[in-house]
TrEMBL record:
It comes from the Eukaryota. It comes from Candolleomyces eurysporus. One of its GO terms (molecular function) is nucleic acid binding. Its EC number is 4.6.1.16. This is tRNA-intron lyase.
Length: 326
């Protein structure tokens, strides 16, 4: 868990920024209105990342924004693992053994409780069967006595009372009490817990490998975004839309770079599909404008053309929508 007032650690591997702490994910989404995409998911399926688990993979534009705001640092994660000493490995092994012992103890306690409940249940069934046997024996004795009395009326002999002793116990029940012994600890399954963040490992030292600026990370060779005009335009447009209070998602499914939401994507539909134009003098073919307009109308959105001026570091916006149609 990172300090809430300190920068968020973004662990970089293969030039992708990952977030492994749940608290950091919540902070990124609530405080900075960034969504990211979870590892192993498909970027064009919107909102799937909200319901799945870690790690969170930030878009490169989101990563650049957080670092430029001073809200995050980039960590060269593969280089942050030192070679563990014998004492550190022994400590880690002892912690794993203690965890296994705790799990086995809990499992044995649960099994003992379950077996005890089974024994009580079988004891209750045995007593119920005994009561039923006594009632059955008493009914048979009463029926035999009545038959003897009726027979004496015709024969004139004195009635011979039938044996009605109910003190004799019923036949032994065939059901035996089942009380199996708990399995040996070597046969009980257990879980090896591997923490998501590496901050709990004694040999993980991220501070010497942390970078607070994009330039520093680029010089270290762990990060190279943005590296050309198109990527600078994407970063500029992303930040410009974000600074206006919008939430941004991946817009490839709708023919653009970003989906622009006026609020939390779980509560609002996106109003715009944004396309990044890397230069204010870039030529657009008429068919491109028609295609953007038709696609936006079909998906009940307006298509937003975002032109980036790399000299002035400014963004101009032009929306396309079919008036009175769709």
């Amino acid at each position: 868990m990172s300090d809430e007032e300190g920068p968020i650690p973004l662990r970089v591997a293969n030039k992708k920024a990952y977030v492994w702490d749940v608290e950091d994910v919540a902070r990124i989404r609530s405080q900075y209105r960034l969504c990211g995409v979870l590892a192993g998911t498909l970027p064009h399926l919107s909102q799937q990342n909200v319901f799945l688990g870690l790690p969170l993979v930030l878009l490169p534009e989101e990563t650049v924004l957080l670092v430029e705001l001073g809200a995050a640092v980039l960590i060269d994660d593969p280089s942050a693992y030192d070679k563990p000493s014998s004492a550190q490995l022994e400590k880690w092994n002892e912690e794993q053994k203690e965890s296994i012992k705790t799990q086995i103890a809990l499992i044995e306690t649960r099994n003992a409780k379950k077996n005890s409940e089974n024994v009580l249940t079988e004891e209750a069934l045995r007593k119920r069967q005994e009561r039923a046997e006594r009632r059955r024996a008493l009914a048979q004795a009463q029926a035999a006595e009545q038959e003897a009395s009726e027979a004496s009326l015709f024969s004139g002999d004195a009635p011979t009372p039938a044996a009605t002793s109910t003190d004799a116990g019923p036949p032994a029940s065939t059901a035996e009490v089942n009380n199996p012994q708990a399995s040996s600890s070597s046969l009980i399954s257990h879980t090896i817990t591997v923490p998501g963040p590496s901050s709990s490992l004694d040999w993980y030292t991220p501070h010497p490998h942390s970078h607070s600026t994009i330039e520093s990370a680029r010089a270290a060779g762990i990060w190279d975004y943005p590296s050309n005009l198109q990527e600078r335009a994407q970063c500029g447009v992303f930040r410009g839309l974000w600074e206006q209070g919008n939430y941004l998602g991946v817009g490839i499914k709708f023919g653009g770079e970003y989906l622009v939401y006026p609020g939390d994507p779980l509560r609002y539909h996106s109003h715009f599909v944004a396309t990044v134009i890397e230069s204010p003098t870039m030529t657009l073919r008429p068919m491109e404008i028609v295609a953007h307009g038709r696609l936006g109308t079909a998906t009940k959105k307006s298509h937003l053309l975002c032109g980036w001026d790399d000299e002035k570091k400014e963004v101009s916006y032009l929306s396309i929508a079919w008036a009175g149609f769709g």
